[in-house]
């Protein structure tokens, strides 16, 4: 898979005009494609099948769903590995753009449109044609670097207002109420009754469980 190495030399760099022309001819450009919500994986699988069936592998090279590592905190406090989409509702396609390859991607079920510049209609009303615009090399570099270097994000089923029990740490066996959730830090803040007073305490996701 492209750009998967931690070595900076493996990330695309901003090319000169000559390099950009040669790169475009040899391995295509990356385009963002808007898809129906929740259908990213379905579009990727269907498009890859269409590429093979229609023998378009020499024009459409890669289909990617940029994702970062994440984990879910189960109700028992254990962790489950998962992935978090960086751009929900979009897939990236590396391709040589022409009418034929455009049709293959655009006519894939659940694809809405390429991201690009809308061309106004010459006559009448209504939306015009969207001209696909390739991502810049710096955008591609940033997206794949974000995917490869992002710290795992924790996802939790807990929301403010829910009752919890602390299952580990210095406040074990205390009950409380969630008042704030910080997924990016894998922590939450809860009000615990300590010495008869509601006291805000910061806890790790895996230190609590939801009370039914």
Automatic annotation (TrEMBL):
Residues 1-29 are annotated as: Disordered. Pfam families: NusG. InterPro entries: KOW, NGN, NGN-like_dom, NGN_dom_sf, NusG-like, Rib_uL2_dom2, Transcrpt_antiterm_NusG, Transcrpt_antiterm_NusG_bac_CS. Keywords: Transcription, Transcription antitermination, Transcription regulation, Transcription termination. Residues 157-184 form the KOW domain. SMART domains: KOW, NGN. Residues 27-147 form the NusG-like N-terminal domain. It comes from the Bacteria. Participates in transcription elongation, termination and antitermination. PANTHER family: RHO-INTERACTING TRANSCRIPTION TERMINATION FACTOR NUSG, TRANSCRIPTION TERMINATION_ANTITERMINATION PROTEIN NUSG. Belongs to the NusG family. This is Transcription termination/antitermination protein NusG. It comes from Phormidium pseudopriestleyi FRX01. The gene is nusG.
